[in-house]
Amino acid sequence: MRLRVLACWAPLLLALHGFAQQTGSNAATAAAPPPPAAAVQTQPEPGAASIKVDVNEVIVPVTVTDDKGHFVSNLEQKDFQILDEGKPQNIEYFSRERAQPVVAGFLIDLSNSSRTQWKNFQNAATELVLTLLPGKDKFSGYLIGYGNKAELMVNTTSDPEPFVSKLRDLKPGGGAALFDAIYMACTNRALIKGEPFEPRRVLIVVGDGNDNSSKKTLQEVLEVAQRNLVTIYGISTVSYGFTSEGSDNLTRLAEETGGRVEYPLQNVYKDVSGFQSTPSDEGNLAFHAGTGGFASALATALFHSVANVAGEITTQYILRYTPNEAEASDKVFRALNVKVSLPDVKVRARKGYYPVGK
């Protein structure tokens, strides 16, 4: 069984490795972005409430896909329009360069709900780290595990080895403090010079979105993520048609910040010959896979999700603009809407931002 699973993973791992090494040779390049006019970020002092970001200049990462979900990567600046509270804005910086610098937070669900497929998600998280942290200085990340409480397990670094070592030793058990983990990611870890403009900030949650142990609320962490210009992605651990009360949490966190959620275990076996779902004596409703084909299908689904998330993070358009100060000062939270002058495309971008001092 192990040999069959590895055989299924091999081509996907090779593809991901090649994807991580691509630096944009087949994509249009952009001039180095000018330093933001008034972006201020500081390492938090002991006891500080949050990493501060002044948003005089607004950064808007944008993903465009066609009706089949394929990335549309050949658009120009003239194809985009940004509406701030319904008013068109002047795009001052535009980039479609591949492999742009990012600092990625990997948030791993260590609750009891992760036990069933833990080894598979442990392997998927490891490959996600290796894909997004290829050992180059412009790609950095950090690791937070959350069970009954959130814990910063690897602070911000470009070296993937501490992540691989730590992930290898983790074991799930206990509750789920997802919201506290997101708050920690936004307030308590080492910063990279240039955040959040270059590198950009992303969070990747590997979990089911459930939270039963946090001190923070969904609304609180959504606000702190938006204030810190964080884009949230999810790789859901919800299995085979089951539901989780946390799925709506994960969806909202992703959609409000411009990210997406992958569901690798939903209908994963639908194309495997001979598959049947049957009630099981071991627990609620469990599914038994009788051949190595099922393990291969699971591995394929997981690593397609890893490739999809990694691909989106590194295949985004970056737009920046400076809103009119008089207009930006009248509301605490300002709504954004990004439009593309093409039919039958889906545009994903953050839903809004908090102006300076709000």
Explain briefly what this protein structure is.
The protein has 358 residues and is an alpha/beta fold. Helices cover 28% and strands 22% of the residues. It folds into 2 domains: 2-17 and 99-313, von Willebrand factor, type A domain (Rossmann fold); 54-96 and 319-358, no CATH class.
List keywords for this structure.
alpha/beta; Rossmann fold; six-stranded mixed beta sheet; 14 strands; disordered N terminus; globular; 358 residues; single chain
Number of helices: 8
* Pattern of helices and strands: HEEEEEHEEHHEHEHEHEHEEE
CATH architecture of the largest domain: 3-Layer(aba) Sandwich
Strand order of the largest sheet: 7-6-5-8-9-10
Largest sheet: 6 strands, mixed
Shape: globular
Named CATH topology of the largest domain: Rossmann fold
The CATH superfamily of the largest domain appears as von Willebrand factor, type A domain
User: How many domains make up the 3D coordinates?
Assistant: 2
Low-confidence stretches: 1-50, 272-291
Distance between the termini: 56 Å
**Helix fraction?**
25-40%
Radius of gyration: 20 Å
CATH class bucket of the largest domain: Alpha Beta
